[in-house]
Amino acid sequence: MLTNADITLYNYVETPQKQEWIGTQIRGVSFYTKQETAAEKTGLVSQDSYQIRIPETADTQGKYFIDPDKYLLLSDGERENYWTIDNGSIFVKGLHGEIRKESDILNLPCAGKVVSFSDNRRGSPRMHHFRIGGKR
After folding, report:
1. Using CA atoms in the order 7, 35, 99, 117, what is the torsion angle rounded to 10 degrees?
2. Residue 79, H or E segment
3. Quick one: pLDDT at residue 110?
């Protein structure tokens, strides 16, 4: 798989004590943007659509992938060692730091929300990857 970008993926965590976005910088992904248009009552509307493929061998800061349901059950200390993908997660092209709210990232170019994802770690090991579909 050809890689052409780095991304930062943010997962939202809400506990009784706090609400936060936890970011994972991922180096070496395939990042593709497509412009889509739709006819609405007010006229044509344009929106960016993203397809991101994260090879299983991508650099994820030493963090390990875990299913979204299990990620939410981790303690704050445990969560530092893992990353996940879930609908509603936020991604942005490039390596970025901490954020406090969604709008901090969604206002950046090449940023969006995960609307679909799949774990494609079956078949040929050299093709194992995670696929993200996203919208602006």
Report:
1. -60
2. helix 76-79
3. 92
Say if residue 43 is exposed, middle or buried (CB neighbours under 10 Å; 0-12, 13-18, 19+). Answer: exposed
- pLDDT tens-digit map of 73-128: 998 889 999 999 999 999 999 999 988 888 888 888 899 999 999 999 987 777 89
End-to-end CA distance of the chain: 25
Structural tokens at position 89: 């997660």
Q: What angle do CA 66, 71, 75 make, to 5 degrees?
A: 130
Which letter does DSSP use for residue 42 in this model?
T
Half-sphere exposure of 110 (CA within 13 A, CB side): 15
pTM for the full predicted model = 0.90
